[in-house]
Protein backbone atom coordinates (compact mmCIF):
# COMPACT_ATOMS: atom_id res chain seq x y z
CA UNK A 1 0.00 0.00 0.00
CA UNK A 2 1.32 3.44 -0.96
CA UNK A 3 2.08 5.64 2.04
CA UNK A 4 3.81 8.69 0.53
CA UNK A 5 2.24 11.23 -1.81
CA UNK A 6 2.61 10.30 -5.47
CA UNK A 7 4.18 12.90 -7.76
CA UNK A 8 2.93 12.38 -11.31
CA UNK A 9 4.12 13.99 -14.55
CA UNK A 10 2.29 14.41 -17.85
CA UNK A 11 2.92 12.06 -20.77
CA UNK A 12 3.63 14.39 -23.69
CA UNK A 13 5.03 13.29 -27.06
CA UNK A 14 6.66 10.20 -25.59
CA UNK A 15 8.22 12.02 -22.64
CA UNK A 16 7.29 12.64 -19.02
CA UNK A 17 7.28 16.33 -18.17
CA UNK A 18 6.78 18.47 -15.09
CA UNK A 19 4.90 21.77 -15.17
CA UNK A 20 4.66 24.82 -12.96
CA UNK A 21 1.26 23.92 -11.54
CA UNK A 22 -0.06 20.72 -9.98
CA UNK A 23 -3.48 19.25 -9.27
CA UNK A 24 -4.03 17.55 -5.94
CA UNK A 25 -5.93 14.26 -5.85
CA UNK A 26 -7.38 13.10 -2.54
CA UNK A 27 -8.37 9.80 -0.98
CA UNK A 28 -12.15 10.04 -1.31
CA UNK A 29 -12.80 8.18 1.93
CA UNK A 30 -10.20 9.61 4.33
CA UNK A 31 -9.72 13.00 2.69
CA UNK A 32 -5.93 12.56 2.78
CA UNK A 33 -3.76 13.81 -0.07
CA UNK A 34 -3.02 10.92 -2.43
CA UNK A 35 -1.19 12.38 -5.43
CA UNK A 36 -0.09 15.57 -7.14
CA UNK A 37 -0.30 15.64 -10.92
CA UNK A 38 1.29 18.14 -13.28
CA UNK A 39 -1.21 20.59 -14.77
CA UNK A 40 -1.25 21.46 -18.46
CA UNK A 41 -1.35 25.07 -19.64
CA UNK A 42 -2.13 26.61 -23.02
CA UNK A 43 1.43 26.18 -24.29
CA UNK A 44 1.55 22.51 -23.32
CA UNK A 45 -1.83 21.76 -24.90
CA UNK A 46 -0.60 23.31 -28.14
CA UNK A 47 2.55 21.17 -27.99
CA UNK A 48 0.38 18.10 -27.45
CA UNK A 49 -1.79 18.82 -30.47
CA UNK A 50 1.28 19.55 -32.61
CA UNK A 51 2.81 16.23 -31.56
CA UNK A 52 -0.39 14.33 -32.35
CA UNK A 53 -0.67 15.93 -35.78
CA UNK A 54 2.98 15.12 -36.52
CA UNK A 55 2.53 11.53 -35.36
CA UNK A 56 -0.49 11.09 -37.62
CA UNK A 57 1.34 12.49 -40.65
CA UNK A 58 4.83 11.09 -40.19
CA UNK A 59 4.80 7.93 -38.02
CA UNK A 60 3.65 4.72 -39.64
CA UNK A 61 1.52 2.66 -37.26
CA UNK A 62 0.48 -0.45 -39.20
CA UNK A 63 -2.26 -2.83 -38.13
CA UNK A 64 0.08 -5.56 -36.93
CA UNK A 65 1.87 -3.09 -34.65
CA UNK A 66 -1.43 -1.74 -33.31
CA UNK A 67 -2.45 -5.29 -32.43
CA UNK A 68 0.85 -6.03 -30.68
CA UNK A 69 0.81 -2.79 -28.66
CA UNK A 70 -2.78 -3.29 -27.49
CA UNK A 71 -2.20 -6.92 -26.54
CA UNK A 72 0.98 -6.05 -24.64
CA UNK A 73 -0.88 -3.26 -22.87
CA UNK A 74 -3.60 -5.72 -21.86
CA UNK A 75 -0.97 -8.07 -20.44
CA UNK A 76 0.64 -5.23 -18.51
CA UNK A 77 -2.70 -4.20 -17.02
CA UNK A 78 -3.21 -7.76 -15.86
CA UNK A 79 0.27 -7.85 -14.31
CA UNK A 80 -0.41 -4.58 -12.47
CA UNK A 81 -3.98 -5.38 -11.43
CA UNK A 82 -3.49 -5.00 -7.68
CA UNK A 83 -1.82 -1.59 -7.87
CA UNK A 84 -4.32 -0.27 -10.42
CA UNK A 85 -7.32 -1.47 -8.40
CA UNK A 86 -5.96 0.18 -5.25
CA UNK A 87 -5.45 3.45 -7.12
CA UNK A 88 -9.03 3.35 -8.42
CA UNK A 89 -10.36 2.58 -4.93
CA UNK A 90 -8.40 5.37 -3.26
CA UNK A 91 -8.93 8.22 -5.70
CA UNK A 92 -12.37 7.16 -6.95
CA UNK A 93 -13.92 5.79 -3.76
CA UNK A 94 -14.88 2.59 -5.58
CA UNK A 95 -14.94 -0.56 -3.41
CA UNK A 96 -11.83 -2.64 -4.04
CA UNK A 97 -13.87 -5.62 -5.26
CA UNK A 98 -15.49 -3.45 -7.93
CA UNK A 99 -12.16 -1.79 -8.74
CA UNK A 100 -10.70 -5.22 -9.45
CA UNK A 101 -13.61 -5.95 -11.77
CA UNK A 102 -12.90 -2.68 -13.59
CA UNK A 103 -9.28 -3.66 -14.19
CA UNK A 104 -10.34 -7.08 -15.46
CA UNK A 105 -12.85 -5.47 -17.81
CA UNK A 106 -10.19 -3.05 -19.06
CA UNK A 107 -7.90 -5.95 -19.95
CA UNK A 108 -10.72 -7.49 -21.98
CA UNK A 109 -11.56 -4.17 -23.66
CA UNK A 110 -7.98 -3.78 -24.88
CA UNK A 111 -7.89 -7.37 -26.11
CA UNK A 112 -11.13 -6.92 -28.04
CA UNK A 113 -9.85 -3.65 -29.55
CA UNK A 114 -6.66 -5.44 -30.63
CA UNK A 115 -8.63 -8.17 -32.38
CA UNK A 116 -10.89 -5.62 -34.06
CA UNK A 117 -7.85 -3.84 -35.49
CA UNK A 118 -7.24 -6.91 -37.67
CA UNK A 119 -10.78 -6.74 -39.05
CA UNK A 120 -10.49 -3.30 -40.62
CA UNK A 121 -11.19 -4.23 -44.22
CA UNK A 122 -12.84 -2.50 -47.12
CA UNK A 123 -15.30 -4.08 -49.51
CA UNK A 124 -15.82 -4.64 -53.19
CA UNK A 125 -18.84 -2.73 -54.49
CA UNK A 126 -21.06 -4.52 -57.04
CA UNK A 127 -21.13 -2.52 -60.26
CA UNK A 128 -24.29 -2.87 -62.33
CA UNK A 129 -24.43 0.33 -64.35
CA UNK A 130 -20.89 1.56 -65.05
CA UNK A 131 -19.14 -0.89 -67.41
CA UNK A 132 -15.36 -0.94 -67.23
CA UNK A 133 -15.19 0.37 -63.67
CA UNK A 134 -13.99 -1.55 -60.61
CA UNK A 135 -15.30 -0.17 -57.30
CA UNK A 136 -14.01 -0.84 -53.81
CA UNK A 137 -13.48 0.88 -50.46
CA UNK A 138 -10.57 1.24 -48.05
CA UNK A 139 -10.57 2.30 -44.39
CA UNK A 140 -8.08 4.84 -43.10
CA UNK A 141 -7.60 6.64 -39.76
CA UNK A 142 -9.58 9.86 -39.36
CA UNK A 143 -6.77 11.75 -37.61
CA UNK A 144 -6.26 13.26 -34.17
CA UNK A 145 -8.83 12.21 -31.55
CA UNK A 146 -9.50 13.90 -28.20
CA UNK A 147 -11.02 11.91 -25.33
CA UNK A 148 -12.66 13.65 -22.39
CA UNK A 149 -13.33 11.07 -19.70
CA UNK A 150 -15.26 10.90 -16.38
CA UNK A 151 -14.31 9.95 -12.83
CA UNK A 152 -16.56 6.95 -12.33
CA UNK A 153 -14.59 4.43 -14.42
CA UNK A 154 -11.14 6.05 -14.56
CA UNK A 155 -9.56 3.05 -16.26
CA UNK A 156 -12.16 1.20 -18.33
CA UNK A 157 -13.87 4.26 -19.81
CA UNK A 158 -10.46 5.65 -20.79
CA UNK A 159 -9.54 2.29 -22.32
CA UNK A 160 -12.87 2.31 -24.21
CA UNK A 161 -11.62 5.43 -25.98
CA UNK A 162 -7.90 4.73 -26.25
CA UNK A 163 -8.29 1.13 -27.46
CA UNK A 164 -10.51 1.85 -30.48
CA UNK A 165 -8.56 5.01 -31.39
CA UNK A 166 -5.26 3.12 -31.52
CA UNK A 167 -6.85 0.11 -33.21
CA UNK A 168 -8.05 2.44 -35.95
CA UNK A 169 -4.58 4.00 -36.23
CA UNK A 170 -5.33 7.40 -34.71
CA UNK A 171 -3.31 9.47 -32.22
CA UNK A 172 -5.37 10.24 -29.11
CA UNK A 173 -5.16 13.02 -26.54
CA UNK A 174 -6.70 12.12 -23.18
CA UNK A 175 -8.15 14.72 -20.85
CA UNK A 176 -9.19 12.67 -17.81
CA UNK A 177 -11.37 13.76 -14.93
CA UNK A 178 -8.96 15.58 -12.63
CA UNK A 179 -10.26 13.86 -9.48
CA UNK A 180 -9.21 10.43 -10.76
CA UNK A 181 -6.37 11.35 -13.12
CA UNK A 182 -3.76 9.24 -11.31
CA UNK A 183 -5.25 6.11 -12.85
CA UNK A 184 -4.94 7.58 -16.34
CA UNK A 185 -1.31 8.49 -15.73
CA UNK A 186 -0.65 4.89 -14.66
CA UNK A 187 -2.35 3.66 -17.84
CA UNK A 188 -0.09 5.90 -19.94
CA UNK A 189 2.96 4.42 -18.21
CA UNK A 190 1.85 0.95 -19.25
CA UNK A 191 1.02 2.04 -22.80
CA UNK A 192 4.51 3.51 -23.09
CA UNK A 193 5.96 0.22 -21.85
CA UNK A 194 3.80 -1.61 -24.39
CA UNK A 195 5.51 0.32 -27.19
CA UNK A 196 2.92 2.87 -28.32
CA UNK A 197 4.57 5.16 -30.92
CA UNK A 198 5.67 8.63 -29.89
CA UNK A 199 2.78 11.10 -30.00
CA UNK A 200 0.06 8.46 -30.36
CA UNK A 201 -1.06 8.65 -26.71
CA UNK A 202 -0.78 11.81 -24.63
CA UNK A 203 -2.40 12.95 -21.40
CA UNK A 204 -3.26 16.49 -20.31
CA UNK A 205 -4.74 17.30 -16.91
CA UNK A 206 -6.58 20.55 -16.31
CA UNK A 207 -9.98 22.17 -16.05
CA UNK A 208 -12.62 22.03 -18.74
CA UNK A 209 -12.67 25.82 -18.92
CA UNK A 210 -9.01 25.94 -19.98
CA UNK A 211 -7.65 22.65 -21.30
CA UNK A 212 -11.04 21.39 -22.44
CA UNK A 213 -11.95 24.55 -24.32
CA UNK A 214 -8.57 24.69 -26.04
CA UNK A 215 -9.01 21.12 -27.26
CA UNK A 216 -12.51 21.87 -28.53
CA UNK A 217 -11.50 25.00 -30.40
CA UNK A 218 -8.51 23.52 -32.23
CA UNK A 219 -9.72 22.32 -35.63
CA UNK A 220 -6.72 20.02 -36.04
CA UNK A 221 -8.61 17.63 -33.77
CA UNK A 222 -11.14 15.87 -35.99
CA UNK A 223 -13.04 13.62 -33.58
CA UNK A 224 -14.09 13.93 -29.94
CA UNK A 225 -15.21 11.12 -27.68
CA UNK A 226 -16.82 12.20 -24.43
CA UNK A 227 -18.54 10.61 -21.46
CA UNK A 228 -20.26 12.99 -19.07
CA UNK A 229 -23.22 15.27 -18.56
CA UNK A 230 -25.74 16.29 -21.27
CA UNK A 231 -24.94 19.97 -20.64
CA UNK A 232 -21.26 19.48 -21.46
CA UNK A 233 -22.12 17.14 -24.33
CA UNK A 234 -24.31 19.80 -25.92
CA UNK A 235 -21.58 22.39 -25.44
CA UNK A 236 -19.05 20.14 -27.15
CA UNK A 237 -21.32 19.58 -30.15
CA UNK A 238 -22.11 23.28 -30.48
CA UNK A 239 -18.43 24.24 -30.22
CA UNK A 240 -16.97 21.76 -32.71
CA UNK A 241 -19.51 22.40 -35.47
CA UNK A 242 -19.27 19.89 -38.30
CA UNK A 243 -16.46 17.92 -36.72
CA UNK A 244 -17.60 14.58 -35.32
CA UNK A 245 -18.23 13.51 -31.75
CA UNK A 246 -19.25 10.37 -29.91
CA UNK A 247 -21.23 11.45 -26.86
CA UNK A 248 -22.18 9.10 -24.03
CA UNK A 249 -24.26 11.24 -21.71
CA UNK A 250 -26.61 10.88 -18.76
CA UNK A 251 -29.53 8.65 -17.89
CA UNK A 252 -32.13 7.92 -15.23
CA UNK A 253 -32.23 4.27 -16.23
CA UNK A 254 -35.31 2.19 -15.50
CA UNK A 255 -36.02 -1.48 -14.88
CA UNK A 256 -39.46 -3.09 -15.18
CA UNK A 257 -40.34 -6.03 -12.94
CA UNK A 258 -43.36 -7.82 -14.45
CA UNK A 259 -45.73 -10.06 -12.51
CA UNK A 260 -44.48 -13.27 -14.17
CA UNK A 261 -40.90 -13.21 -12.87
CA UNK A 262 -38.98 -14.37 -9.80
CA UNK A 263 -39.63 -11.38 -7.55
CA UNK A 264 -37.00 -12.15 -4.92
CA UNK A 265 -34.27 -12.73 -7.48
CA UNK A 266 -35.08 -9.45 -9.26
CA UNK A 267 -35.19 -7.48 -6.01
CA UNK A 268 -31.82 -8.83 -4.85
CA UNK A 269 -30.15 -7.96 -8.16
CA UNK A 270 -31.66 -4.47 -8.25
CA UNK A 271 -30.54 -3.82 -4.66
CA UNK A 272 -26.96 -4.50 -5.66
CA UNK A 273 -26.89 -2.88 -9.10
CA UNK A 274 -28.56 0.35 -7.99
CA UNK A 275 -25.65 0.91 -5.62
CA UNK A 276 -22.55 -0.20 -7.52
CA UNK A 277 -19.95 2.56 -7.21
CA UNK A 278 -22.39 4.42 -4.94
CA UNK A 279 -24.82 4.63 -7.86
CA UNK A 280 -22.33 6.67 -9.89
CA UNK A 281 -22.82 4.66 -13.07
CA UNK A 282 -24.57 5.96 -16.19
CA UNK A 283 -26.78 2.87 -16.40
CA UNK A 284 -27.32 2.45 -12.66
CA UNK A 285 -30.88 1.34 -11.82
CA UNK A 286 -32.54 4.57 -10.71
CA UNK A 287 -36.24 4.01 -11.49
CA UNK A 288 -38.01 0.70 -10.88
CA UNK A 289 -41.51 -0.02 -12.14
CA UNK A 290 -43.11 -2.99 -10.43
CA UNK A 291 -46.42 -4.68 -11.24
CA UNK A 292 -49.13 -3.87 -8.70
CA UNK A 293 -49.65 -7.52 -7.81
CA UNK A 294 -46.09 -8.06 -6.57
CA UNK A 295 -45.20 -4.62 -5.24
CA UNK A 296 -45.38 -5.52 -1.53
CA UNK A 297 -43.29 -8.68 -1.85
CA UNK A 298 -40.76 -6.87 -4.04
CA UNK A 299 -40.36 -3.95 -1.64
CA UNK A 300 -39.94 -6.24 1.36
CA UNK A 301 -36.99 -7.97 -0.29
CA UNK A 302 -35.51 -4.81 -1.84
CA UNK A 303 -35.52 -2.85 1.41
CA UNK A 304 -34.02 -5.76 3.34
CA UNK A 305 -31.25 -6.29 0.79
CA UNK A 306 -30.37 -2.59 0.47
CA UNK A 307 -30.26 -2.18 4.25
CA UNK A 308 -27.78 -5.06 4.46
CA UNK A 309 -25.26 -3.50 2.06
CA UNK A 310 -21.97 -2.76 3.79
CA UNK A 311 -21.05 0.92 3.51
CA UNK A 312 -17.60 2.25 4.32
CA UNK A 313 -13.90 2.15 3.44
CA UNK A 314 -13.49 1.18 -0.24
CA UNK A 315 -10.21 -0.60 0.56
CA UNK A 316 -12.07 -3.06 2.78
CA UNK A 317 -12.80 -6.16 0.71
CA UNK A 318 -16.24 -6.54 2.37
CA UNK A 319 -17.43 -3.03 1.46
CA UNK A 320 -20.30 -2.85 -1.05
CA UNK A 321 -20.77 0.93 -1.16
CA UNK A 322 -18.04 3.52 -0.72
CA UNK A 323 -18.15 7.32 -0.66
CA UNK A 324 -19.43 9.50 -3.46
CA UNK A 325 -16.83 11.38 -5.45
CA UNK A 326 -17.12 14.47 -3.22
CA UNK A 327 -19.02 15.84 -0.26
CA UNK A 328 -20.54 18.40 -2.63
CA UNK A 329 -22.15 15.60 -4.64
CA UNK A 330 -23.29 13.86 -1.45
CA UNK A 331 -24.92 17.08 -0.27
CA UNK A 332 -26.63 17.42 -3.65
CA UNK A 333 -28.34 14.04 -3.43
CA UNK A 334 -29.22 14.69 0.22
CA UNK A 335 -31.05 17.84 -0.89
CA UNK A 336 -32.81 15.94 -3.69
CA UNK A 337 -34.07 13.37 -1.18
CA UNK A 338 -35.27 16.11 1.19
CA UNK A 339 -37.02 17.84 -1.70
CA UNK A 340 -38.77 14.61 -2.72
CA UNK A 341 -39.89 13.88 0.85
CA UNK A 342 -41.33 17.36 1.19
CA UNK A 343 -43.35 16.66 -1.97
CA UNK A 344 -44.75 13.37 -0.64
CA UNK A 345 -42.08 10.73 -1.26
CA UNK A 346 -41.41 8.12 1.42
CA UNK A 347 -37.91 6.90 2.32
CA UNK A 348 -38.11 3.20 3.21
CA UNK A 349 -34.44 2.86 4.11
CA UNK A 350 -31.21 4.87 3.95
CA UNK A 351 -30.72 8.39 2.67
CA UNK A 352 -28.61 9.65 5.57
CA UNK A 353 -25.32 11.39 4.80
CA UNK A 354 -22.05 11.56 6.69
CA UNK A 355 -19.42 13.56 4.83
CA UNK A 356 -19.26 12.14 1.31
CA UNK A 357 -20.87 8.83 2.33
CA UNK A 358 -24.59 8.40 1.65
CA UNK A 359 -26.51 5.41 2.97
CA UNK A 360 -28.19 3.59 0.03
CA UNK A 361 -31.81 4.71 -0.19
CA UNK A 362 -35.11 3.27 -1.40
CA UNK A 363 -37.98 5.69 -2.04
CA UNK A 364 -41.63 5.21 -2.95
CA UNK A 365 -44.54 7.58 -3.64
CA UNK A 366 -42.37 9.41 -6.15
CA UNK A 367 -43.69 11.34 -9.12
CA UNK A 368 -42.74 13.46 -12.10
CA UNK A 369 -41.32 16.81 -11.11
CA UNK A 370 -39.04 15.35 -8.46
CA UNK A 371 -35.35 15.56 -9.32
CA UNK A 372 -34.80 11.97 -8.17
CA UNK A 373 -37.22 10.92 -10.93
CA UNK A 374 -36.56 13.40 -13.72
CA UNK A 375 -32.80 13.92 -13.49
CA UNK A 376 -29.79 11.63 -13.37
CA UNK A 377 -29.26 10.98 -9.65
CA UNK A 378 -25.76 9.47 -9.96
CA UNK A 379 -26.02 8.38 -6.35
CA UNK A 380 -26.96 5.34 -4.23
CA UNK A 381 -30.69 5.77 -4.60
CA UNK A 382 -33.54 3.90 -6.26
CA UNK A 383 -37.20 4.89 -6.55
CA UNK A 384 -40.03 2.37 -6.89
CA UNK A 385 -43.40 2.95 -8.58
CA UNK A 386 -46.10 0.49 -9.61
CA UNK A 387 -48.11 -0.14 -12.77
CA UNK A 388 -51.15 -2.12 -13.85
CA UNK A 389 -50.50 -2.93 -17.53
CA UNK A 390 -47.31 -3.38 -19.52
CA UNK A 391 -48.39 -0.50 -21.74
CA UNK A 392 -48.42 1.72 -18.66
CA UNK A 393 -44.95 0.48 -17.67
CA UNK A 394 -43.56 1.24 -21.13
CA UNK A 395 -45.03 4.74 -21.00
CA UNK A 396 -43.44 5.33 -17.59
CA UNK A 397 -40.01 4.25 -18.82
CA UNK A 398 -40.28 6.40 -21.94
CA UNK A 399 -41.46 9.46 -20.00
CA UNK A 400 -37.89 10.68 -19.70
CA UNK A 401 -35.56 13.03 -21.52
CA UNK A 402 -32.98 10.23 -21.40
CA UNK A 403 -32.74 6.93 -23.25
CA UNK A 404 -29.58 4.96 -22.53
CA UNK A 405 -30.62 1.51 -21.32
CA UNK A 406 -33.57 -0.19 -19.65
CA UNK A 407 -34.10 -3.60 -18.10
CA UNK A 408 -37.14 -5.84 -17.84
CA UNK A 409 -37.77 -8.99 -15.82
CA UNK A 410 -40.35 -11.24 -17.47
CA UNK A 411 -40.89 -14.86 -18.49
CA UNK A 412 -43.19 -13.83 -21.35
CA UNK A 413 -41.36 -14.77 -24.56
CA UNK A 414 -43.64 -12.67 -26.77
CA UNK A 415 -43.12 -9.61 -24.57
CA UNK A 416 -39.36 -10.18 -24.64
CA UNK A 417 -39.41 -9.91 -28.43
CA UNK A 418 -41.73 -6.89 -28.48
CA UNK A 419 -40.17 -4.76 -25.75
CA UNK A 420 -37.02 -3.62 -27.64
CA UNK A 421 -39.29 -1.97 -30.22
CA UNK A 422 -41.39 -0.24 -27.56
CA UNK A 423 -38.76 1.25 -25.25
CA UNK A 424 -37.02 4.48 -26.32
CA UNK A 425 -33.51 3.46 -25.32
CA UNK A 426 -30.25 2.35 -26.91
CA UNK A 427 -30.12 -0.97 -25.05
CA UNK A 428 -32.75 -3.32 -23.63
CA UNK A 429 -31.65 -5.87 -21.03
CA UNK A 430 -34.08 -8.77 -20.63
CA UNK A 431 -34.19 -10.59 -17.29
CA UNK A 432 -31.55 -8.34 -15.81
CA UNK A 433 -31.25 -4.71 -14.77
CA UNK A 434 -30.46 -1.68 -16.89
CA UNK A 435 -26.97 -1.81 -15.36
CA UNK A 436 -25.68 -4.71 -17.45
CA UNK A 437 -22.90 -3.97 -19.93
CA UNK A 438 -20.63 -6.33 -21.80
CA UNK A 439 -17.67 -4.33 -23.06
CA UNK A 440 -17.80 -5.74 -26.58
CA UNK A 441 -21.45 -4.84 -27.17
CA UNK A 442 -22.67 -1.64 -28.88
CA UNK A 443 -23.34 0.86 -26.12
CA UNK A 444 -24.97 4.26 -26.50
CA UNK A 445 -28.27 6.02 -26.10
CA UNK A 446 -30.93 8.19 -27.66
CA UNK A 447 -32.50 11.51 -26.71
CA UNK A 448 -30.31 13.35 -24.16
CA UNK A 449 -28.29 10.21 -23.49
CA UNK A 450 -26.11 11.05 -26.47
CA UNK A 451 -25.19 9.77 -29.91
CA UNK A 452 -22.81 7.26 -31.42
CA UNK A 453 -21.81 3.89 -30.04
CA UNK A 454 -19.04 2.59 -27.82
CA UNK A 455 -17.83 -1.00 -27.73
CA UNK A 456 -14.54 -1.47 -29.64
CA UNK A 457 -15.94 -2.80 -32.93
CA UNK A 458 -18.54 -0.03 -33.10
CA UNK A 459 -16.34 2.81 -31.86
CA UNK A 460 -13.67 1.91 -34.42
CA UNK A 461 -16.10 2.41 -37.28
CA UNK A 462 -16.60 6.00 -36.13
CA UNK A 463 -12.83 6.49 -36.04
CA UNK A 464 -12.03 5.47 -39.61
CA UNK A 465 -12.80 7.16 -42.90
CA UNK A 466 -14.32 5.02 -45.62
CA UNK A 467 -12.70 6.00 -48.92
CA UNK A 468 -14.34 4.91 -52.17
CA UNK A 469 -11.95 3.92 -54.95
CA UNK A 470 -13.03 3.69 -58.59
CA UNK A 471 -10.64 2.12 -61.12
CA UNK A 472 -11.23 2.74 -64.83
CA UNK A 473 -10.28 -0.58 -66.42
CA UNK A 474 -10.72 0.71 -69.98
CA UNK A 475 -7.77 3.10 -69.89
From TrEMBL:
Coiled coil feature spans: none
Root EC class: oxidoreductase
Signal sequence interval, chain numbering: none
Entry-linked SUPFAM superfamilies: ALDH-like
Entry keyword Translocase: no
UniProt entry tagged with the keyword Oxidoreductase: yes
Entry EC number(s): 1.2.1.97
Keywords: Oxidoreductase
Domain Aldehyde dehydrogenase: start-end pairs: 16-469
A GO term, aspect molecular function: lactaldehyde dehydrogenase (NAD+) activity
Catalyzed reactions per annotation: (2S)-3-sulfolactaldehyde + NAD(+) + H2O = (2S)-3-sulfolactate + NADH + 2 H(+)
Superkingdom per UniProt: Bacteria
InterPro entries: Ald_DH/histidinol_DH, Ald_DH_C, Ald_DH_N, Aldehyde_DH_dom, ALDH-related_metabolic_enz
The family this protein is said to belong to: Belongs to the aldehyde dehydrogenase family.
Biological role: Part of the sulfo-TAL (or sulfo-SFT) pathway, a D-sulfoquinovose degradation pathway that produces sulfolactate (SL). Catalyzes the oxidation of 3-sulfolactaldehyde (SLA) to sulfolactate (SL).
Name of this chain's protein: 3-sulfolactaldehyde dehydrogenase
Organism annotation: Oceanobacillus oncorhynchi
Amino acid sequence: MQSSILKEKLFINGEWIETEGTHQVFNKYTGELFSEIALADEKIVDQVINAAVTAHKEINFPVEQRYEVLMRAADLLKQNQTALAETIAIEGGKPISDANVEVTRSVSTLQVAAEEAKKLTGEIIPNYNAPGRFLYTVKKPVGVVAAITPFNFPLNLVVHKVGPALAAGNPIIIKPASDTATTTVKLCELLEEAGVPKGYVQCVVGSGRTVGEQLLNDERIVHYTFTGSPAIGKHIQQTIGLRKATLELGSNSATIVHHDTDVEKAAKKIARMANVNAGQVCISVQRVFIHDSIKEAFLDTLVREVAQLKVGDPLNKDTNVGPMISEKEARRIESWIDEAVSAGAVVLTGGKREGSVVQPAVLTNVKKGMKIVDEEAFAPIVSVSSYDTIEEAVALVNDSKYGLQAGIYTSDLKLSYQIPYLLEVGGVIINDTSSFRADQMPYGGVKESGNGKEGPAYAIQELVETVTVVVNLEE
